[in-house]
Design brief:
Elements lengths: L1 H32 L16 H4 L1 E2 L12 E2 L4 E8 L4 E7 L3 E10 L10 E8 L5 E2 L7 E4 L5 E7 L17 E11 L8 E12 L18 H14 L25 H23 L13
Parallel strand pairs: 1-3, 2-4
Antiparallel strand pairs: 3-11, 4-10, 5-9, 5-11, 6-7, 6-8, 6-10
Helix pairs in contact: 1-4
């Protein structure tokens, strides 16, 4: 009889432990299966049809940083120019965006070129610092009989804040410069058609950092701030602020919320479940049944 009672007690003490372990496993599986999609792999997949699906944008390009044509993300900018010209476009990029710039140079087939040419795109931020491309064909060589050249540059993810000495991409304006880097002297001045498209993907809280800029790095921000300070000191009226670069459709990002908070909460839940599971494994079965009462 005592043996039967001991077995029943041991079974009753083991059942909750198995239930807790199963509950912890199910909770962990549900947490990772319902993870936010923004933290998945968001590497852009270049495709030739993206330029065609983009909306029509400006039909001219600037020849310097100050005269750069404004281009919104998702638009397609076109321009007609001559080989040897520098073409500039400017577009906005916000925190957490991984931007990809695509350019297509169409060369007229009816004009015989003397030699091959090399085309290149460069991207600069609002401080006019050249930003490196993480991957993509930033510079390509076109043969004498080539009809077009396709260039691609994927930038690093835009950060909300950075140290003054760093070269990290920050939210604000980004300039695209398209030009021919190597060309025979006899081919200078020949006409060509250029097409530029910009798109980006959200990387989510996996790349989020603390802090944020007081103002995005857009054209004229520093100059306008200096004018406002001078006007306040002199007691004069503020001059009307020039039209700034159009920001993203939903406005420039701000605030403390990122997807990282979801992972932080998920990690806390998993830690609590792990603690409960470890306690059930180490607490034992209680008082042994063979010990008489009062001992």
């Amino acid at each position: 009889m005592r043996t039967v009672l001991r077995r029943s007690r041991s079974l009753q003490s083991r059942r909750p432990r198995g239930r807790v372990a199963a509950g912890a496993a199910l909770a962990a599986a549900a947490l990772f299966t319902t993870a936010p999609p923004a933290l998945a792999d968001t590497s852009p997949s270049p495709s030739a049809s993206q330029n065609e699906e983009a909306e029509a944008g400006p039909t001219e390009a600037g020849t310097a940083f100050r005269t750069a044509a404004r281009l919104a993300q998702g638009q397609r900018g076109t321009a007609s120019a001559s080989t040897g010209d520098y073409l500039y476009w400017v577009f906005p990029a916000d925190t957490g965006q991984r931007t990809t710039v695509r350019a297509t140079v169409s060369l007229p087939a009816e004009q015989a070129r003397q030699s091959a040419s090399t085309w290149r795109i460069d991207v600069y931020d609002g401080l006019r610092r050249r930003q490196p491309c993480t991957y993509g064909l930033q510079e390509r060589r076109a043969a004498e009989d080539a009809a077009e050249v396709r260039l691609t540059c994927t930038l690093r993810t835009v950060r909300a804040f950075s140290e003054p000495w760093a070269n990290d991409p920050l939210p604000g304006a980004y300039y695209v410069r398209l030009t021919v880097s190597r060309l025979a002297a006899d081919d200078l001045g020949r006409p060509f058609q250029a097409e530029v498209a910009v798109d980006s993907q959200e990387t989510g809280g996996s790349t989020a950092v603390g802090g944020r800029l007081s103002e995005p790095l857009t054209p004229g921000v520093s100059a306008v701030s200096a004018e406002e300070e001078t006007a306040e000191e002199d007691g004069a009226e503020r001059a009307p602020r020039p039209a700034a670069l159009a920001g993203p459709e939903d406005g420039w990002s701000s605030g403390w919320w990122t997807d990282r908070w979801l992972w932080t909460a998920g990690g806390a839940v998993l830690a609590a479940l792990a603690g409960i599971f470890g306690y059930t494994l180490t607490r034992g079965n209680g008082r042994p049944g063979r010990v008489p009462p009062g001992v």
